Amino acid sequence: MSTTKNPVGQNANGPEITVDVLIVGGGFSGLCMAIKLLEARMDSFLLLEKSGDIGGTWYDNRYPGCACDIPSHLYSFSFEPSPDWSRMYPGQPEIHAYLKRIVERHNLSPYIRLNTRFHEATWDESESVWHATAGEGMKIRARLLVSGIGGLHVPYYPQIKGIERFAGPQFHSSTWDHSIELEGKNVAVVGTGASAIQFVPQIASRAGKLLLFQRTPPWIVPRMDFPIADIWKHRFRRFPFLMKAFRQFIFWRQEIRVLGFLGNRFVRRKATEIATHNLEKHIKDPKLRAALKPNYELGCKRVLVSDDFYPALKRPNVELVTEAIAEIRPNSILTADGVERPVDVLILGTGFRATEPLIGIRLVGRGGIEIHDAWREHMSAYLGVTVSGFPNLFLLLGPNTGLGHNSVVLMIEAQVRYVMSCLFLLRRRKRKVLEVRSDTQKQFFAEVQRRLQGTVWQSGGCKSWYQDPVTGENMTLWPQSVLAYVRRTKYAALGDYTLS
Ligand SMILES: Cc1cc2nc3c(=O)[nH]c(=O)nc-3n(C[C@H](O)[C@H](O)[C@H](O)COP(=O)(O)OP(=O)(O)OC[C@H]3O[C@@H](n4cnc5c(N)ncnc54)[C@H](O)[C@@H]3O)c2cc1C
Predict the structure, then answer these.
(1) pLDDT for the residue numbered 13
(2) What's the whole-model pTM score?
(3) How far apart are CA 167 and CA 411, in angstroms?
(4) Per mean pLDDT, which range of 29-33, 36-40, 373-377 is the poorest?
(5) Cβ(402) to ligand 1 under 6 A?
(6) What DSSP line would sit under 342-408, residue for residue?
(7) How far is the CA of 397 from the centre of ligand 1 (A)?
(8) What's the CATH fold of domain 163-226+234-348?
(9) 159 C-alpha vs ligand 1 centroid, how far in Å?
(10) Distance 275 CA to ligand 1 centre (A)
(11) Cα 312 vs. chain centroid, distance in angstroms?
């Protein structure tokens, strides 16, 4: 196959763009893949991004208070440490700016095509290439296909009776409409997940009345956010080993939490005590406290970090509503107990379609099988990355590689390293096609399911977005430590693959 440099410069409606690697998605995953390809002097690749800018999660989510919930000294690339993080948990603009800086530093722009949605790809067995379509009639031929489309980018819109008839403005947290004035209005927020607990404190003082509709309360631990003093930024710049040590410290502080999730009673009890104390410290009203106390085990749903959510609920203009919503009317919300509350603006903090794989994408592998059909029984990929029947396809943050306790950027880096090791394996063996053995994938799936048994995600007594809403199977989380995953993905073992 001919290699093509800087393919973005080519005519999109020309016959077919030919690249070695096609990357889909311009978030942490896609960018990491692009950087590592360039480092290995593999510059025949193209990165497609459907949005108008790179950044993924950190471009899309611009709601007030949007920030990471893992400190950025860890929630960033290990090979691109930044001494300049302004605080422990910087906001969206700072993380987006970090990713933009990285694109510039690595001169990635010529390889990126924005506003270009990837539609589908079909494996051509005779030529051993993927034929893909994207954008408006763009055709691409690629030897390798890497999906970095992320798991949390398609908003979940709840099916609530009458929601389409609501007369005022309504929007999802990930598509925040900043043109809507909230000052003095009756604002209803549906959901108390990771996004809602960040934006509720930001808008509570602006709204006339804020109604917060909660289905299940989250466990919340103190965030302990603080600005990083200039002297420390200076030290981090001057002595990079200090920054490394700080990253290590945060890594282990986060990593230890997984023990509680995997079944260690002592760690889970300690974490529960911290979260319970956090609730009791802030909320003295017994009725409100009872409404905010989760009735499932800590970790079963994502544990949230916040210092300002509970205080915001004590404001006189904020009401926590725990009754189920019966109906949304043009200017009000009716709850199951028959109470109707006037509403001017409706904000959905209802999260994302996290358990549905590869939304809006068609991938047709060997024998004409589409990946959603191959996954009809259950979604699975070896190490979350490779799928039997889909040669030369690599998924970043694929099935069962999300985390509930640590930075997923660590998982992304491990996966990209693993993909590179697959490419080196092909190169060393002078082969073009790599496909995971079906028995290897099956054994891995069985191992993951076995390991999930006994974890808090399976037995913690809750329904969470980690689980398939129908089967209850957890297809989202990695059931071990990050360290275990990094070890498992150090290199691609020849025995796991067929090369041709
Ligand atoms: C508000 C919020 C806060 C978060 N905070 C944390 C945190 O603190 N710590 C943590 O570990 N994780 C956090 N996460 C999870 C976060 O999604 C991941 O950390 C990380 O951003 C995933 O990167 P990604 O590149 O895999 O996916 P994304 O960032 O989602 O990027 C995927 C990209 O693919 C593009 N894309 C999708 N489909 C197509 C298509 N068909 N064609 C072309 N492009 C396409 C999307 O537009 C998007 O730009 C958070 C998520 C959210 C929503």
Answers:
(1) 54
(2) 0.95
(3) 43
(4) 373-377
(5) no
(6) E-SEEEE---B-TTS-STT-EEE-GGG-BHHHHTSS----BTTTB-TT-TTEEETT-TT-B-SSS-H
(7) 10
(8) FAD/NAD(P)-binding domain (3.50.50)
(9) 24
(10) 27
(11) 26
pLDDT tens string 397-426: 999 999 989 999 999 999 999 999 999 999
25 lines ligand 1 (CB under 6 A): yes
For 226-248, what is the mean pLDDT? 97
Find the radius of gyration of the CA atoms of the chain. Answer: 23
The Cα 500–Cα 494 span in angstroms is 12
Map residue 214 onto helix, strand or coil.
coil
Contact 133, 361 (CB under 8 A): no
Measured from the CB, is residue 53 less than 6 Å from ligand 1?
Answer: no
Q: Tell me the domain boundaries of the chain.
A: 17-154+354-499, 163-226+234-348
Say how far residue 428 (Cα) sits from the centre of its chain: 34
Instruction: Indicate which atom in ligand 1 lies nearest the CA of residue 396.
Output: 26
Length of the chain: 500
Amino acid identity for residue 423 in this structure: L
Q: Under CATH, what is the fold of the domain 17-154+354-499?
A: FAD/NAD(P)-binding domain (3.50.50)
Ligand 1 lined by 148 (C-beta under 6 Å): yes
Give 229 Cα–ligand 1 centroid separation in angstroms.
Answer: 29
